[in-house]
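Researcher: Quick test of sequence recovery. Tokens follow.
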């Protein structure tokens, strides 16, 4: 039985990885994808899957590259929750 539920939002998670600052480019643009991949590489290093390859494996156009990047950042949030290193927004005492 689970005693709590945690919710996460990809854009807030990317903002956290960006030192609390909003990202500069929209996620559907090439600049936005590059910005997000750069942040994810800081977390996952070489373990970060190539989003285009993952998209192809998952069915081509059925999955967007931005969806794959969002899933990766949310996997990182799940790890932070597991380690009890995640925090609430807005922060509460």
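Model:
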């Amino acid at each position: 039985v689970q005693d709590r539920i945690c919710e996460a939002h990809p854009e807030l998670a990317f903002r956290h990885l960006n030192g609390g600052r909003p990202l500069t480019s929209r996620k559907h643009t090439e600049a936005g994808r590059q910005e997000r991949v750069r942040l994810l590489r800081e977390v996952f290093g070489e373990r970060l899957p190539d989003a285009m390859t993952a998209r192809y494996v998952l069915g081509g156009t059925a999955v967007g590259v931005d969806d794959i990047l969002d899933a990766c950042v949310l996997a990182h949030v799940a790890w932070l929750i597991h380690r009890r290193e995640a925090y609430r927004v807005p922060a509460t005492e």
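Residues 81 and 87 are 8 Å apart (CA to CA).
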